[in-house]
Amino acid sequence: MHYIERRKTRVSIQRLEESIKILREIYENGGDPMEEIDIDKITKVRTGGSFSRFCDARASDFHNGRREEDKKPFCIVFIDVDGLKMCNDEGGHDAGNRLLRRIADRLKRHFGSRVGRFHGDEFGILLEYTRKEAERMMERIQKKMDDLEKPIAFSFGVCEYAEAESMQEAIKLADERMYQQKERRRDALRIKARP
Fold it and tell me: According to DSSP H, which parts of 38-130 are helical?
């Protein structure tokens, strides 16, 4: 009985420490932690709503900010985890959740609190780079994850904010580009599989 209580307390403390770390990163990046405390329970990244508010705040800074860094280019990246359905079908939702946590942990290592989880297997990232720089960075990360012993495959799409009329359109363009890449990756796998 005491072991279970201590373990629950230890898990609660770990979750609290993770939340504090995320809130500290939000504060250090100029955000308001009190507005950004929507954290996805499975992946420990921002929820889709929290990520959208974070992106809207960055867009507002881009248009209204007075600091030189506010005017620098930035991108929205959308990621779709490949194979989540198969993982869920073969190993159940616990296996799927483990896969989501693996990819979220890797993304957090690279991008900190700039990551959000949308629907099921979709993630968003806000990067302070041009589109070409962001695409190169994501290709390197994609390659590293594809080369793991248990690969984590994902497709991504990037939209530089200046390409769009609004944040909503930038997110939509990044999402469309992600699906285009997903189709190209599927086509490449089909060609490889042919005898």
Answer: 48-64, 84-111
